[in-house]
Amino acid sequence: MDEQAPVVESRRRRSRAEAEQLVAEYESSGMSRVEFCRKQGVSLATLARYRKRQAQGKAETGSGWVAVEVSGSGPAPKGKERSGLVVALAGGRRIEVGQGFDGRTLVQLLGVLERL
Questions:
Q1: How confident is the model over 26-53, as a mean pLDDT?
Q2: DSSP characters for the chain?
Q3: What gap in Å lies between CA 1 and CA 33, rounded to an integer?
Q4: pLDDT score of 95 more than 90
Q5: pLDDT at 16
Q6: Can you tell me the distance from the alpha carbon of 34 to that of 112, in angstroms, rounded to the nearest whole number?
Q7: Higher pLDDT, 114 or 75
Q8: Among 35, 62, 65, 60, which residue's Cα sits nearest to residue 47?
Q9: Pair 104, 20: CB distance under 8 Å
Q10: Is the distance from CB of 54 to CB of 63 less than 8 angstroms?
């Protein structure tokens, strides 16, 4: 055996779920790719591969967006101001965005929700 041969450290492969979680963390982090990869100990190529695989999966299954119905603009309930936007989800969950919201934060939230 050659004692001069360099030692290559093998890395554990991430599962698909772990790769998707890493992409979700990157997209919601607000960091640059370089900064995020350095912090997580991941190469830029690996992150790019995970993002590409996830995007291809979405293209095959559709975007995840669904048709919506705009409800009437009745008066706001007593004691509550009307918000800029309300999304009512199955199971009684709601996403409510006030007027003058930060659009960048909403884009990050939608990115995370699309992966669920």
A1: 91
A2: --TTSPP----PPPPHHHHHHHHHHHHHH---HHHHHHHHT--HHHHHHHHHHHHHHHHHH--S-----PPP--PPPTT-PPPSEEEE-GGG-EEEE-TT--HHHHHHHHHHHHT-
A3: 40
A4: no
A5: 87
A6: 20
A7: 114
A8: 35
A9: no
A10: no
CA angle 101, 109, 63 (to 5 degrees): 120
Q: What are the structural domain ranges in the chain?
A: 13-65, 82-116
The length of the chain in residues reads 116
The better pLDDT of the pair 16, 107 is held by 16
Contact between residue 86 and residue 30 where contact means Cβ atoms under 8 Å apart: no
pLDDT confidence band for 93 (50 / 70 / 90): confident
Nearest to 115 by CA among 14, 22, 13: 22
| Gap between the Cα atoms of 34 and 47, Å rounded | 10
CA 72 to chain centre: 31
